[in-house]
Amino acid sequence: MTDFHDLRDRRMWNWAAWSNQGKPYVGFALQCSQFLSGDDDTNEGFGEIDGNTVLAPQLETARAEYEVDIEDAEIVNGWVVQLPSRHKAALATRYLHKRRGWSRDDVDAAVRAILGLADATRAVIERMRCRKSV
Length: 134
Hints:
- There is one protein chain.
- By secondary structure, the chain is mainly alpha-helical.
- The protein folds into 2 domains: 1-19 and 69-134, no CATH class; 22-67, no CATH class.
- It has 5 helices and 2 strands.
- The chain has a two-stranded antiparallel sheet with strand order 1-2.
- The two termini are 36 Å apart.
């Protein structure tokens, strides 16, 4: 997976889930409800079950894919806050609010802008490392 697709298709959704935690947001609540209700016809996440009775609760996390990577979300958020308003609006409409009306081109442009910020950050860090080692 390329950096672009990884950011657009995985990391931005992680950032959105992190941004919406603890807020009364229907989309995030629906995701949690689906996970907690076991709509995928498995008993993972509930421990040992007999019918509708939990015999032994599961103590560790069952599904890592439902967990928010807080560190990565904070990194992405650091880039998002540096974006121009147009890019922020496209990302918020698409990922945070999950509304219609977002343009694929606008979202892709915002993702490319984040990748540009990430590259610039890496270049600055590399330059700082070179100066420090001299």
